[in-house]
Amino acid sequence: MLETFSPENLSPGYLSDKSPENISGVKETFPEQLSEGNGIVSGEAPEELSDGNDIVPEGDSFSFSITAPEAGERIDKVLAVRIPGQSRSYLKKLIKEELIRIDGRPVKPSTCVSENETVSVVLPVRMLPDILPEDIPLDILYEDEDVLVVNKPKGMVVHPAAGHYTGTLVNAVMYHCKGSLSGINGVLRPGIVHRIDKDTTGSIIVCKNDNAHQSIAGQLAEHTIVRRYRAIVLGNIREDTVTISQPIGRDPSDRKKMAVRPDGRQAVTHIRVLERFGNYTYIECRLETGRTHQIRVHLAWYRHPLLGDTVYGSSKKTPFATQGQCLHAQILGFIHPVSGTYIETEAPLPDYFNNILKKLRS
After folding, report:
1. Do the Cβ atoms of 248 and 269 come closer than 8 Å?
2. Which of 47, 309, 332, 340 is least enclosed by beta carbons within 10 angstroms?
């Protein structure tokens, strides 16, 4: 039976200024075989696993489906949320030039959208620098002629975007793969089918051709990709297993952040406690869904933010050197797009993470 927690019996860990309004979304359970994650299908702009920069780059084309909470809204208002970083006037210009369509039809800024309609967007290139291959060392966990799994280091952005046109994972894999990468997601995201945050370490899959990309994207969309994360959070989580089921949407007060909000998209995170250290807890997280910043947002809402997460957690100094959130994508499992065999990789914990655990255990 699933136990529902109320604010009174929550663990006495980190208390945020904004307490959850509906703690009934937290349940004690941990399904053993849940699949995780989501990604980019046929050029769809990723809603999940962002690289820390949610501004959609110019020179990009993508599509998305209208959700129930968006139904009835004007298309220009929907676009302002879906495409942060672009002015409302610029989006209206794109609509006027018929670069934004609904189910293939031109629209007006005042057009109201309906659930399940498909919105296609083309962002023309204005002035983009060339994205060049760079000889950046890669920690390769698995590689064949179709896919590449990399253990991404902390501080590396996944793909070029505003302010990050060099030193990204894309620059590195372009050099490593000699340009042999899928092109489905445009010139700024060759080979990229999903993302993890800039300061999140661990496993990420890169596709070397369009066939592999479509296969992996389909698995991501169907939630059959296996993803397990390791994390250290503030506070002592009393329950051994916890499920957080709370919708996530963009924070209305800060468009670069996400937040738990009733009109957001369904999001479910499963947590299992591995070790307790008084004021800190070492946990495993699985994503039943995979919204942008999902683990970070859910754990902050649950009053146990990630150690080192100054965006969603506390800005207070800790005795540990984290340089960002203490979150690691450890396990990545998928069906090979050609052979059909199950491939599972494990990214070892980074040194900084092991050093923190060593201090906590001493």
Report:
1. no
2. 340
Q: What is the pTM of this model?
A: 0.71
How would residue 343 be classed by pLDDT, with cut points 50, 70 and 90? Answer: very high
| Class of the domain covering 7-35+228-327 | alpha beta
Res. 56: pLDDT tops 80: no
Q: Which amino acid is at 165?
A: Y
Tell me the β-bridge partners of 249.
259
CB-based burial label for 314 (10 Å; 0-12, 13-18, 19+): middle
Q: Would you call 197 a catalytic residue per the annotation?
A: yes
Q: What are the residue ranges spanned by the domains of the chain? A: 7-35+228-327, 60-123
- Domain 60-123 grouped into CATH 3.10.290.10: yes
pLDDT computed for residue 291 by the predictor: 87
Distance CA(295)–CA(289), nearest Å, equals: 10
Catalytic residue (one of 60, 76, 197, 199): 197
* Whether pLDDT at 213 is above 70: yes
pLDDT band at 269 (very low <50, low <70, confident <90, very high): very high
Cα–Cα distance measured from residue 204 to residue 109, given in angstroms and rounded to the nearest whole number: 37
Residue in 30, 51, 44 with CA at minimum distance from that of residue 287: 30
